[in-house]
Amino acid sequence: MSDPSLSQGSAYPVASDRRGPQRRPEFLRPLLATALLAAVAWAPAPAAAQPRETVLVTGSSTVYPFSSAVAESMAEAAGGQRVKVASTGTVHGFAQFCRGPGLEHPDVQNASRRMTAGEFSLCVRNGVNEIMEVPIGFDGIVVAHRKGLPSPNFSLTQLWLGVAKEVPQNGRMVPNPYTSWRQVSADLPDWPIRVIGPPRTSGTRDSFTELAMMAGCRSAPEVVAISDTAERNRICTTVREDGRWVDAGEDDEAIVRRITTDADGTLGIFGFSFLDAARDRVEGSHIEGVDDTPETIASGRYPLSRPLFLYAKRPNLERIPALKDYLAEYVSDRALGSGGYLAQRGLVPLDAGRLREVQNVVRERTVMNRRPNG
C-alpha cells in the first residue's frame, strides 16, 4: 500500500547510529504546532533520581491505548507490570519527556504528530540529545456523530466555516454567525453546530488545526488578502468561543460518550481507533467525499490522516532493561504487523516494507540527528 505521508522532506533529514551517519527514510514534515512548555511533572521529582526498573511512558491520548496494550502483553508474559503508561496529551508529554535525561523523567513519549523543531531543540538544550524516533502506524481524525443519523459529507472549508471564531462575509472577516450546519451549506444537515473537540494540549488538536482548519481556510479570498502572516494564521486556526466548540479533556472515550448523550447532531473530533471501538454507538462523517477506513487512512486519501510516533531515549536502553524489551515488543510482527493485536485495536498499520525499516531503527538503536543549522 502506498505511503505518501511518510515520504515528505522534513527538518530531520538523516539518522545516525553508533557506526556514524546513515541515510534513513523520512517520515513526515513537522506540523505547525508550537510546543507549549507546560510545567506538568510526571511525579514529584526526588532530590536525586533513584534507580528504577519500570519503564515510564507519557504523551498522546490517541497513542495511549496502543502503548497500554503492549505494556499489558509484556506484563502477561513476565508475570508482572514493567511499564507505566500515562495519558497527558502530546504537548504536555513532550514537555515532560524533554525536561531532562534523568530517571525521574519519562523514557518514552507517545505522539499523535511528529515532534516539532521547537520540541527537538528543547530536548537538546536539556541534555536529551539521543532520541529514537519510531513511527508505529497511522490514524485518521474522525468527525463523528451518534449512530443512526445521516452521515454528512464535509468539505474542509465547510468544517472551518463551522468552527472558526471569525469567518468571511461580504468581503470582510466577522464573528462567526452560523448556528447550524445548514447555514454553512444547503448540502449539510440542519443540525445545530456543537462540536466536542480535543484541547490545545492534544496532538489531535494540532493535527486538526493543520489538516482541516488551515487547509479549509486557505481558499477564502478575504483570508488570502491578509498580508500579515501571523494574523492570517490566527484567523485560520482560532476556534469559536461562543460555546459551539467545546474543549474536551485528554480522554477520547469521554468525547465518544458526549456525542452519544448530547443533542442529535453533536459532533466529536477524535482518533479513528476510538471510532473503530465504538461502531455500535457512533459513525464517522465523510471528508471531501472520502470515508474514514483503514485503507483510505493508510493511503493518505482520507484528508485527515496522520502518522503516529514513539520517541525513546537511547541511553535509557542500557539503564532500564525493560525498555529494550518494550520497544522490541512494540515493533514486533505480532503487535505492529497487519494482523497484529494493535491493528485489532484500531491502529492502521504500516506496510511490510516500512515495518521492517522501523524494526531496524529499534534493533540498531538509531537516533535522530540535530536539525541542519539548528
Describe the protein's architecture and organization:
The chain starts with 14 loop residues before the first strand and ends in a 6-residue tail after the last strand. Helix 1 packs across helix 13, helix 4 packs across helix 6 and helix 6 packs across helix 8. The protein is an alpha/beta fold. The chain is built from 16 helices and 16 strands. The longest helix has 15 residues. The strands form four sheets. Strands 3, 4, 5, 6, 10, 11, 12, 13 and 15 form a nine-stranded mixed β-sheet that branches. The chain has a three-stranded antiparallel β-sheet with strand order 2-1-16, with no helix packed on it.
Largest sheet entry: 9 strands, mixed
Summed over residues and divided by their number, the pLDDT gives a mean of 86
The stretches of 5 or more residues where confidence is low (pLDDT under 50) are: 1-48
Q: Fraction of residues in helices?
A: 25-40%
The backbone outline, from C-alpha atoms, is: globular
Radius of gyration: 21 Å
Task: State the total count of DSSP E strands.
Answer: 16
Q: What portion of the residues fall into strands of 2 or more residues?
A: 15-25%
- Helix count, per DSSP? 16
> What structural class should be given to the helix and strand makeup?
alpha/beta
Determine the N-to-C terminus distance: 35 Å
